[in-house]
Amino acid sequence: MKNQEPISDCGELVKPNNLNLLGFYISILTAVLTVVTFVIAVLTPPISGPYCLESCIEYPFLDIISRFPRDYIWMYPAIILMIIFVILMVCIHQYAANDKKIFSHIGLSFALISATILITDYFVQISVIQPSIINGETDGISILTQYNPHGLFIALEDIAYLLMSLAFFCVSPVFSKPTKLEKSLRWLFILGFVLTLISLAAITNQYGINREYRFEVLVITIDWFVLAIAGILMSLIFKRARQK
C-alpha cells in the first residue's frame, strides 16, 4: 500500500516536498533571527528595576526620550520572529503523524496566543510609547512603558513566554521516532518547559508579587535558547525528510 500524502486540517493535500522545503528554511530563519534578536536585546540592558546599577530611570519613567530608538530596536526583529515562530509551529503540526496531531494542534493554539500577545505588546511600545513621549503626551505612559519593572509590558511578556514554553511542551510528543535528532528535540522542549516552571516557582517564592522583571528575563532567555536550538534541529529533520 502506497504512503498517503499528509492531509491538512482543511482536507487539502500538503505535498511532502513543499512541507519539508518550507520547514527547512523556516527553521534556519528561526535560529538565525532568534540569535540576532537576543544579541541586540542583550546589548540594550534594562536601565530600571532590580538589575539596573547606575543612571537608572525611575517612576514615572518620563525621562526616557534619550533612549530612543536604541532600546526599541530589538523589538522589530522580535515581531518578525513571532510571525516566523507561528509558521514553524504550523510546519511542526503538518509534520506530525496523524495520531500526534492533537498534540501539535494544541501546541499551535498556544503559540498563536503567545505570538499575538507579544506582537501587540511590542507594537504598542514602538507605535504608542515613542510618539507619545516625543509629543509630550505622558498620561498613562508609566503603566505601559517597558521601563516599568512591574508594568503591563512585563506582565504581558511573562504570560506570553509562559504560553510559548507550554506550546513547546505540547508539541514534544510529535517527536517520538527513535532517532537522536527527534529524541534531542523532544527533551529540549520538555526541559525548557520544566526550567520555566522552576524559574517561576523559585522567583515567586522569593519575591512574591514583587518579582518585577526577574522572571521575564529568565523565561525569555530559556525560550529563545530553546527556539534557536530547535530551529537548528528542525532544519536537520526537514533536510533529512527531503532526502528520503
Explain the layout of strands and helices:
Elements: H1 16-42, H2 75-95, H3 101-134, H4 141-144, H5 152-171, H6 180-207, H7 214-243
Commentary on this structure:
With 244 residues, the protein is mainly α. The chain has one domain. It is built from 7 helices and no strands. The chain has helices at 16-42, 75-95, 101-134, 141-144, 152-171, 180-207, 214-243. Helix 1 runs antiparallel to helix 2, helix 3 runs antiparallel to helix 5 (152-171) and helix 5 (152-171) packs antiparallel against helix 6.
State the main characteristics:
244 residues, disordered N terminus
Structural class: mainly alpha
Pick out the low-confidence regions: 1-5, 7-13
Beta-strand percent range: under 5%
Number of structural domains: 1
Instruction: Describe the global form.
Output: elongated
Span of the ends, CA to CA: 18 Å
- Residue-averaged pLDDT: 89
Percentage of helical residues? 55-70%
Question: Short summary of the structure?
Answer:
By secondary structure, the protein is mainly alpha-helical. Helix content is 67%, strand content 0%. It contains 7 helices and no strands.
